[in-house]
Amino acid sequence: VSPAVPLTDLDTDSLRAANARFQAAYDALAAQGLKLDLTRGKPSADQLDLSNELLRLPGDEYRDAAGTDLRNYGGALGLPELRAIFADALLVPPAQLLALGNASLTVMHDVIVQAILHGVPGGERPWGARTVSFLAPVPGYDRHFSICERYGIRLIPVPLNDDGPDIPTVRALLEADDSIVGMWCVPVYSNPSGAVYSKEVVRELVSLPAAPDFRLFWDNAYVVHHLTDERPTPIDVLGLAAEAGNPDRPLVFASTSKVTFPGAGVAFVGGSQANIDWLVRNMAVQSIGPDKINQLRHVRLLQDADGLAAHMEKHRAILEPKFQAVSEIFENRLAPHGGGRWTAPLGGYFVSLDVLDGAAERAVQLAAAAGIAVTPAGATFPYGDDPRDANIRIAPTFPRLDELRTALDGLCTAILLAESETLLA
Ligand code: PLP
């Protein structure tokens, strides 16, 4: 088969010949008995090492700048010094930014449960009083979807373009369906495509007519996770929402999970004063204050906004070659056959790969049988349902570079076999 001819352009005989070659390559791959894993959006061990000083910090210190004893209860809003560092990156005023426990996912989950039970500021009744829905830009983050699925919130997929969710679709859905009370947004380096929302799109999202209890779950998990020198202009979503007359619409989330230790980090939530007062009231019955010693550790490690940026550059140095390997291997192995389209993110943790329609699930299955674990096909869609069966999320951060290359190469072998099978079926 000529490498210049896309699989979709081959006649049946040539396709059969290609399929036989891919099958032989796959059999050789399977015989290697690999055991590799491309599923995990986790930092690698050498990234975790960048924050090992945390294991020794804060030493004998236990007071904040104001002299408060952080060993004790209290300080429900979190350590002011740490909130100041992340206020800068998130463009949320420190007074409206809380530093909490270990996982932002917990905060998102709790906000949703609180909204179901009590309703949110401006809402007439709890979300739980009726059937409610969330808009879900796709491909997206499966754990966002899982929260909604767990609590019976309907998920409505919306196409995610390179500059953010497709606004005409969002507008039409909001006009037609008054059950919509929320929307998942990963505005910078979206999981998994790496899309960065433009200012125009953000302006639309905060301005479009919607119910008073409609909330944007603004998960800025990757706002400081750059992979190149090309940096998106920071967008002040709270400021734009206030300007548009909808100050309570965005709820901003973030964490240090992929800055320091995912297992021992700090989560943040920001919003309008009304939203923050509501959150603090809800949290007051949950906890007498977060782990402020861990927050102090983080202040000592990161120091200030510049320290945070410098720390993230060390992550970039480790991650950049891994993302380059993804582009290079897909370019060499898939592109000659027209075997897929993939994103080249400027930051974040993932690459989104679209293989030929109908081949993703089979490709993942073939890869698994050859010892290469890949995120299940469909995981990036609500209910695990990718209507085209095309999208595969690639997580290149965790494996060592040599293992990553072997796994990606093997995955391409599985994809080409799956695609040729699909076209012959
Ligand atoms: N939000 C997004 C978009 C993510 O990709 C992830 C992890 O992959 C998380 C949140 C999890 O954040 P945390 O560790 O703070 O719960």
UniProtKB/TrEMBL annotation:
InterPro entries: AspAT_Ic, PyrdxlP-dep_Trfase, PyrdxlP-dep_Trfase_major, PyrdxlP-dep_Trfase_small. One of its GO terms (molecular function) is L-aspartate:2-oxoglutarate aminotransferase activity. It holds the Pfam family Asp_aminotransf. It comes from the Bacteria. Keywords: Aminotransferase, Transferase. The keyword Transferase applies. This is Aminotransferase. It comes from Leifsonia poae.
